[in-house]
Amino acid sequence: MNKANTATMGPLIEGYFSYLDKVGRKTPRTIVDVRCTLRRAIARLERLCPGVELWHLKLEDYLHWLEAERQGGCTESSLAKYLSHVRGLLEYAWRSGRAERNVLDGFSLQHTIRRVLPKSLNLDEAERLVQATTVPGPTARRDRLIILLLYGCGLRTNELCALDVAHVNRERCELVVLKAKGDRPRAIPIPEALYTELLAYLLEHGKRGPLFRTSTRKRRLQASDVCEVVTAAATRAGLRAGVTPRTLRHSFATHLMDRGVDLAIIASLMGHRSPQETGVYLHVLPERPQAAVRSLPIGVNAGIKSPKVPTENSPELGPREADSKGEMSR
C-alpha cells in the first residue's frame, strides 16, 4: 500500500478514521479512499483558504473547491464521492464539538448525476456463457464453478476470492459469505444443479482452506485471476467485449427481477443495505411500475362503480336541489 495514502494527517481526522473503522465498520479500502479524498481536498482548499481547517470553512469555499475540481476534469460521480467524504468528516467534527455546524449538511450533487444502468447479460447470452465453460483442462471444473457462482449466487469478486471450503453449508445447501462489503455477512441458497457440481469439486480439493486456488502455486485466487477466467469464457462464448465478474452479478439480480422476485429478497441475496440500492435493476422492465399500478383493482370491472353525475330527473336529486336547478335553467 502506498505510504502517502496512510500517512498521519491530524488528531481530529485520524479520530474520524478510527470512528469509520470501529463504529462505521468500513472496510480498509474504503478508509484509504476517504483518506485520499481528504488529502486531496486539504491540498486544494489550502490554496484557496490558507491556514483554515476543513471544519471551519464556509459553504462558499467548498463551492469554489468543487468548481475548481470540475474545471480540472473531475467527473460528476467523483465530485459526489468527494463531497460525501468531506461531509462525513464535517459531521464528525460538529458532533465532536469542533465546529459550530456542518456547512455541507443537506448539500448534495446526486441530482446532477446521470444514473448509469448496470450492464447485464440477457438469458441467451448467460446460457451461452455457461455452455462455454464445458471445456477440457486442468482448471476446467474450477473455472466453471467460478462462472456459476458469480452468476448463480450474485457474488462480488472479492467475496468469491475470500470463500473457504468451510463456507459451504452442506446441511442447508447454502453459501456463507463472511467477508462481505460493509461487513454485512449473508447466506445465499445454492441452486440445486450448481450444488451438485460444487460437491464434486470439493471431493477433489480437500476439506479446508481457500475454495479456489491457483493451479501452480496453490495460493488463494485473486480478483485479477477471476477476471481472466470470466474474460476467457466470454470470448469462447462469442459475447461482446467488456463482460466482467460484475456483469454476472448484475445479471443475477436482473434475471431474478425479471421473474418477479420480491425486491427485498433480491436485496438480501445481493448483500445490499436496503432495497433502495437494488431498485436500479428495475431497468430490466421499464414498464413494470406502470404495469403494477394498472393491476390495482380500480375500475368498473373491479366492482368499484364510477360516480354518477346527478341529473334533473335523477332519483338521487332531492326536491330542493331540483328546484334550485330549475331556477338556474330559467
Task: Spell out the key features of this protein.
mainly alpha, 14 helices, hpI Integrase, Chain A, single chain, 2 domains, 50% helix
CATH architecture of the largest domain: Orthogonal Bundle
The end-to-end distance, rounded to whole angstroms, is: 91 Å
Q: Which sequence of strands runs across the widest sheet?
A: 1-2-3
Find the count of extended strands (DSSP E, 2+ residues): 3
CATH class of the largest domain: Mainly Alpha
How many helices? The count is 14
Quickly count the domains. Answer: 2
Percent helix range: 40-55%
CATH superfamily of the largest domain: Intergrase catalytic core
CATH topology description of the largest domain: hpI Integrase, Chain A
Described by strand count, sense and barrel closure, the largest sheet is: 3 strands, antiparallel
The Rg value, from CA coordinates, equals 29 Å
Run of helices and strands: HHHHHHHEEEHHHHHHH
Mean pLDDT: 82
Explain this structure to me?
By secondary structure, the protein is mainly alpha-helical. The chain has two domains: 3-112, Tyrosine recombinase, N-terminal domain (DNA polymerase, domain 1), CATH 1.10.150; 123-284, hpI Integrase, Chain A (Orthogonal Bundle). It is 50% helix and 3% strand. The chain has 14 helices and three strands. It has helices at 11-22, 28-48, 59-71, 76-95, 123-131, 140-153, 157-161, 192-204, 223-236, 245-258, 263-270, 275-278, 288-294, 319-329, and strands at 168-169, 174-177, 186-189. A three-stranded antiparallel sheet has the order 1-2-3, with no helix packed on it.
